[in-house]
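Sample intake — GTPase Era
Collected from: Halomonas cupida
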Amino acid sequence: SCGFVAIVGRPNVGKSTLMNRILGQKISITSRRPQTTRHQVMGIKTEDDTQFIYVDTPGIHIMAKDRNKAINRFMNQAAVQALRDVDCVVFLIDRTRWSEEDQVVLQRLEHVKAPVILAVNKVDRLTDKASLLPWLAEVGARREFAAVVPISAKHGTNVPELEAEIAGHL
Ligand code: GDP
Ligand code: MG
């Protein structure tokens, strides 16, 4: 079978890092500076009899600011378009902070029919591990998520578990 997976999230949450980690290569540019990825980056991973097509989706977040710039309108359109035909969405957020921008991305997912997996990134930077669970419960209540998976894209922690969740929802 074949699955089409979109990775979405505000700038700097680690979308490109996650995609590179899953694909095992530097296919997408990562940076401390937001909006490094100006175009959609795609990658294919084949495992047993399943082919995963990953898209690192920039653009959705830009709705909040600079919404009139032609380039941003174009990217938003492309980003929303990409979500129409996906089999699974990975909504990536940062472990500690829920921001306006996360909310904007979540709004864009409102009409997405495909299962949305909430992946909470950068847990390696979490000093107070006990605070994660109540926080996850709060964020997890904002929409029906197919699964909630804490990860570290940078270190690879729990990324195989995330991939298993994705595979389970294709
Ligand atoms: P994108 O804008 O969502 O594509 O984010 P990037 O993948 O470019 O990552 C933004 C920054 O966050 C980079 O400096 C990454 O090294 C860093 N980063 C990404 N994932 C993690 C993680 O799991 N842990 C930590 N500590 N940093 C991360
Ligand atoms: Mg990126």
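Post-analysis note: Residues 9, 11-17, 30-32, 34, 36-37, 121-122, 124-125, 152-154 surround guanosine-5'-diphosphate (ligand 1) (CB under 6 Å).
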